[in-house]
Amino acid sequence: MRQPMRVRRPVSTLSALLTLALGACATAGGGGTGSEQQPTAEEKQAMTAVGGKANGIIVWSSSRLGNHDLFVMNTDGSNVHAITKGEAVDWFPRFSPDGARILFTRSLKGWVYERDANADGKWDIYTVTPDGKDETKVVDNASWGGWVSNEEIVYVRSTAVYRRALSGGTETLLVDSTKVPALDSALLQQPELSKDGAYLAITLRGSQRETGVWDLGKRTWTRTGEGCQINWTPAGDEIYWVHPTGNGGSRVLHLPMANGKPTKSDSDLDAITLIDLPGRRSHEYFPELSADGKWLVWAATQRGHDHDIADYEIYLWEVGTDPATAARLTFHSGNDRWPDIFIGTPAAARADGAGPDKGPPADEKDASGKPAAKGKKKHH
Ligand SMILES: [Ca+2]
Ligand SMILES: [Ca+2]
Ligand SMILES: [Ca+2]
User: Fold this and answer.
1) What's the mean pLDDT when you consider all of the chain?
2) Radius of gyration of the chain (CA)
3) How much is the average pLDDT of 69-75?
């Protein structure tokens, strides 16, 4: 229900347009229900070829039922269905390493912008199974929940990143930007631990707008460039992130890393481009690799860029192949954002909130937050 604000006083054309644009964003629910579209024969063929080969499932956040809910589909775009419902905004879904649970962020009440992702008192973190069962609140007043192992998670409360057992217990503070001059009290977004648990990839917003890596042991910040949505590759030897350059105004870059620092220059952006779609729908965001590192999911628009309002569509690509072979998987004018992919058969979720291979208790870690867990990990 987009209702542009009325402009009551004379304003310049440009500021009137800006006011209208902002007003259009000030909706009761972002994205809107939109409408279903149909893939072309060529697009259908790509869905079958790429998605059939991947043979997994994708979870993402879509506004198509009127507010954002989590949806699941097969990687070939079939069997699209909602697994959460209700007037809250459900987004940032992340599969646990064993696929048994999906961690996600939910608004306390109704519509909340993604630009308020770090706002105090607006979000809680939940889990749900991939078939929409056992919905459980796991963290109060937090957002950007991600997995460390099947038993441990990281998440953000405003300017601080914490680590904790999924089942509860004591929070371990990993970094607080108000205590680190280089971080300048920035809002911390989408934190992700490296495979060895020594480094935290973080996107800064608010007072700073950049990506970088926090060394948990040395307590130092290494800036990795402008842009956002920085991730570690599952192997832990590279970062990848969204950069505000390329076709359509964004692309996904990647850089090799060692000891928490890039080992290659970022002076030639084309040489470090992971994906930049040809054609008009090339404003890429929300990149996420599968746990085996072979598949990349993301979403792209051809106009507009508001994360939670614009008509993003989900894409799947076999890493290393011709970008032109990437398959568009969704065909719906609503907002489709933050996909994650799971390859294989998800483990059955246990009723006590822990995964099938129960790791050591949450207190078995040192002050740097380095993991003592022996369980399987997915670092994407
Ligand atoms: Ca909802
Ligand atoms: Ca692009
Ligand atoms: Ca869409």
Assistant:
1) 88
2) 20
3) 98
pLDDT digit string (tens) for 88-102? 999 999 999 999 999
pLDDT at 27: 43
21: part of which helix (H) or strand (E)?
helix 13-25
Continuous segment of H or E residues that includes residue 272: none
Does 358 score more than 70 pLDDT? no
Instruction: Note whether residue 145 is domain-resident.
Output: yes
Indicate whether 140 belongs to any domain: yes
Q: Report how many helices (DSSP H) and strands (DSSP E) the chain contains, helices first.
A: 3, 25
How far is 248 from 1, CA to CA, in rounded Å? 27
Say how far apart CA 380 and CA 377 lie, in whole Å.
Answer: 9
From the CA of 87, which ligand is nearest?
1
Residues with CB under 5 A from ligand 2 (ion): 246-248, 251, 276, 282, 284
Give tens-digit pLDDT for 207-234: 999 999 999 999 999 999 999 999 999 9
Which residue, among 155, 39, 34, has the nearest Cα to 103 in the 3D structure?
Answer: 155
**Nearest listed ligand to the Cα of residue 304:** 3
Q: Look at residue 171 and give its three-state secondary structure.
A: strand
Q: Is the pLDDT of residue 369 over 50?
A: no
202: domain range?
33-343
Distance, CA of 316 to CA of 318 (rounded, Å): 7
Q: pTM of this prediction?
A: 0.86
Q: Which residues neighbour 179 within 8 Å (Cβ) at sequence distance 6 or greater?
A: none
Total of domains in the chain: 1
CA–centroid distance, 181 to ligand 1, in Å, is 38
Distance 79 CA to ligand 1 centre (A): 19
Report d(CA 68, CA 83) in Å as an integer.
Answer: 11
Task: Tell me, yes or no, whether 128 lies in a domain.
Answer: yes
**60 located within any domain:** yes
Question: Domain containing 45 — which CATH number?
Answer: 2.120.10.30
**320 Cβ partners below 8 Å, 6+ apart?**
none
